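Give me the fold.
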Amino acid sequence: MRPSHPPRPAGSPSPRNLPLELNAFVGRSAELKRLDEALESDRLVTVTGMGGVGKSRLAARAAARTDPGDGAWRVELAAVREPELVEYAVLEALGLTDTTSRLPREVLLDHLAGRRLLLLLDGFEHLVDACAPLVGELLRAVPGLRVLAAGRRPLEVEGEQLFPLAPMTGAEAVELFGVRAAARVPGFAVDDANRSAVLELCRRLDGIPLAVELAAGRLSTLSPAQLLSRLEDRFRLLTGGGRDVPPRHRTLRTAIGWSHELCTPEERLLWSRLSVFAGRFDLEAAEYVCSGDGLRAEDVLDVLGALLAQSVVTREEGPAGVRYRMLATVRAYGAEWLEAMGDAGRLRRRHRDWFMGLATWCELDWFSPRQGEVAARIEAELPNVRCALEYCLTEPGETHLGQYLAGSLWFFWVGCGRLAEGRHWLDRSVEPSSQDGAYEQSRLKALWVLGYVAVLQGDAVPALAALQECRAEAERAGDPTAVAYAEHRTGCLALVTDDMPRAEGLLRSALGRYREIGELNSNVLMGQVELAMARAFQGDLPGAVELCEDVRRVCEDHGERWALAYALYVLAYGAWAGGDRRRARDLLEECLGIGHAFHDLLGTVLAVELLALVTAEDGDPAEAALLQGAASRMWPSVGLPLFGSAYYNAPHERCEATARELLGDERYEECVREGARLEQEAAVARALGRAGKRTLAAVPAPRARGDMRKPAASPTPKGGETAG
């Protein structure tokens, strides 16, 4: 039976990722009360209804009113195209990082066990076949879980309570129109002069919130009476559809079509072309992808502004700057027009080309002071990147571009905690049935990146197979760059499987090849760090320190932070082994801060492990045991604890032995359990918060050091991942 998670302290806010409301929530008081009651009595409630009726907004408001203890978490599925990515989307929404080869569902079940939380699934209707079994299994396995879903159709899972959402009442629709119109036109109010027109307008729009808001968005140019007169014409023009289409769906289509017809030709053209974006996009992407053939790039900004004013597009700000998005229903309408114009294929290729270029720029810029910006940019663009990858891997003759794109994103898969998803795309790109035949360089890159990712996941057999294939094909094709990378990552595999002489030989050879071809980037620096670890484990600590001091200088020259974190780890190891615990702690704290900022779970947990040993020898065995417990909670999301390596495990065993001796077994285990209850954020804050609060004299550190350059007496099974 899984251990339960500790209760949240009384009065503290529950964690959640629900979107903040940027405008007033209008009406729906009766529906909200009934939805609150449904969530109290049922574990699965699905809000259903037509597009634009307000399902997402109502569900988010209801979720925000709950307090399940471990938070309410929204999973936005509208931009997810592939059924197999649903579970990754849930992991992402929960803020989980897992770099192992475990199935994502297994990770979810492990994380949710013993928790009490609400999961809000939004926009799932195109992924019912993937969502339904996942929801059913999670509800059966996790008693404290409740699911609130919002979509156009039921999940049809046992125990599901349906909550059909009708359009707004007349009074509420008028209130919504007035509030949104006043936001567009300062001073506007529903009064005696316009009330009848507004009432009729809302009635003709069937009280559908999206339609009402689109109508209000036009008040900057038209009066309510003018809107009403134009609406009559557009209803006649666009009413229809198949006999099996629900009337309200026809009404929404009419409302959106009417707004579409009110747009200028340039606005309609941009609307249709923006539909190729999955989720959010920025101005530069819109200018490149959507310009040409009737729309100049320099005009996109003004036309986009007009669509913003009409609520066709919304504006958001985040870590990656100002971005835009269209509601799924509006985007779907634009996509239909794009297909009807026969331009969808060309726009999808332009979309792919933009994100190929973005990935190329980001890969180059990763080795620069802009690493943080690069990480945030790719994180923000992930739905579009997935869309581009899917296009490449499904269109005939495009696989080589998918290989190039998946390989170019190595820094994101590896450096930002996305190993599992990277493995998914890389495996697909190199499978035999997907080959184009004439593009060897792209395939070779995908192979060595696949090998790298598999090494980091502790999956040695496929890692070796990919790297051997890469090297053999690279030598046949005369590609010295691919040979160097294949040899480098094979050296990584030897390092984590405790074959230090072979690791040193391969890594030295790879670094020599890099020098010959003039290659210098984060990968090359990581090869030097890995060589330093191999030297340290063989007893050459001065040589290891010299290598990493050189890496540190290069990183400082280029503004590189990610590889620097691993160099700091090795330098901290050397400082600790030399008896300078204060310097070791300072280096580890810097290392931990960098790794955590990049969401690099491997770098984070390595730093916590070594900090635990330094803490024990600083005289605080209880805190050391707590940090070991915190690390033990992180390792299952990385791979085998300490890679299954006897060399990496030696400091851990020394820390445990020291803490057990000073605390006793019972107290040691109690502290470990306390640390294992910490979430990653809290664990990192705890580790970093000890700066300046050391208790060096509290408990004397043991004098006997032992030889930390040799494997521990009882090595664990081999496997795992490199220090990079």
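Strands lie at 44-48, 72-76, 117-122, 145-151, 160-164, 314-318, 321-325.
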